[in-house]
Amino acid sequence: MSVMELAVKREVQTIEPAWSMPHFLEKLLLALKDGPALSTAPLEVADVDPKVALIVKTSGSTGNPKSVLLTSQSLIASARASHKYLCASSGQRWSLLLPTTHIAGINVLVRSIELGTVPVGVDSQAEFSAIVPTQLHRAVHSDQQLLEHLQNCKAVLVGGARLNSELKKRAQDLGIKVITTYGMSETSGGVIYDGKALDGVSFKIIDKRIALKGPQIAYGYLEGGFPIKDGWFITSDLGFIQDGSLIVEARADDQIISGGENISLSAIESYLQGEYSNPEFVAFAKSDAEWGEKLCIATTSNIALDEIRSKLTNRFGSHASPKELVRVSDIPYLSLGKPDRKKLSDDNS
Q1: Domain enclosing residue 308, as ranges
Q2: What's the CA gap between 49 and 98, in Å, rounded?
Q3: CA-to-CA distance for 52 and 41, rounded, in angstroms?
Q4: Could you tell me if 77 and 12 lie in one domain?
Q5: Where does the pLDDT of residue 212 fall: very low under 50, low under 70, confident under 90, or very high at 90 and above?
Q6: How many domains does the chain have?
């Protein structure tokens, strides 16, 4: 039975950009109790199952967008497990540097409610913050105000996309206490911190994919078809376990098949970003009669295609040699800092 077939009794309100922070926190607090559920985007339905407190629309960066249904129990479990890991205490503050159209931004609000405080901006002091790798790169290379803000935090959660190891080390050398997080909307945000599971969370590998279990797991999708197997949420990510830590390799659905060979777009991106100390490289695919899918690279840098081909061939093999190099003035990003590969593919088709 799909979620849509269940009884729908709880009113849904769409989060409005014009809401003030006190108003937003009030609405969220009501949703965590028994008030109207909140949605990060307009829905085609006016009501949802009464267990649902929040509906988060995924970005659809690697597939069709889905509406993730989260309960108040999942959201509160996420906040409390995070605080236990961070040794956070009542009265401490989070800074809100992420959009509240995503679970990462909503989580900052739920955590603030749990600590009895109001989130602050980059111009104020906070004990904790949560950002994406793009923001960390800007702090390290150009944004002095953001750098100083993060340096003054007890911990900075970095998630939403792959974090380059060199960027992490550079940030740590500058005094930013970086914690790499792994999670998604379907897990109420990050549930793995620096490779370790938060309290109450378990992980294992099922058919080469990362599987997660814990109270943070979503209630389901509004559209149905939630990937649960024996209580384990089966992600779209490939990984392995090493010395008890979870190592995330790549998204299963960011792999393309070109000339019969599998290519991980995120692995290509991560390597080039590390080689050139520049996040402005995006790997994407275009349909091709000869190759099925052909690997393309978009960049803001003035680098020759032959140079990139040589580096990628030496690192990954001849199948990873890109067929096209697209120079752009700006890399298109989705709102949480993930590259918009679909737009690059559509714009350059």
Answers
A1: 259-347
A2: 28
A3: 15
A4: yes
A5: very high
A6: 2
Residues 52 and 171 in one domain: yes
Structure-token pair, residue 160? 């939403």
Report the DSSP pairing between strands 155-158 and 178-184.
parallel
Q: Looking at the domain assignment, is residue 254 inside a domain?
A: no
Would strands 94-95 and 128-131 be described as parallel, antiparallel, or unpaired?
A: parallel
Give how far Cα 51 sits from Cα of 24, 231, 254, Å: 20, 18, 32
156 and 177 in contact (C-beta within 8 Å)? yes
**Which one of 210, 231, 249 terminates a domain?**
249
Mean pLDDT computed over 321-337: 85
pLDDT digits (tens, 9 = 90+) for 282-325: 999 888 766 778 899 999 988 999 999 999 999 888 888 999 99
**Which CATH number goes with the domain that contains 120?**
3.40.50.12780
- Structural domain includes residue 128: yes
- Around Cβ 262, how many Cβ atoms within 10 Å? 10
Extract the tokens encoding 177: 């206490």
Instruction: Please list, in sequence order, all residues whose beta carbon lies within 8 angstroms of the beta carbon of residue 206, skipping any fewer than 6 positions away.
Output: 229, 232, 234
Specify the residue for token string 């800092």. Answer: 337
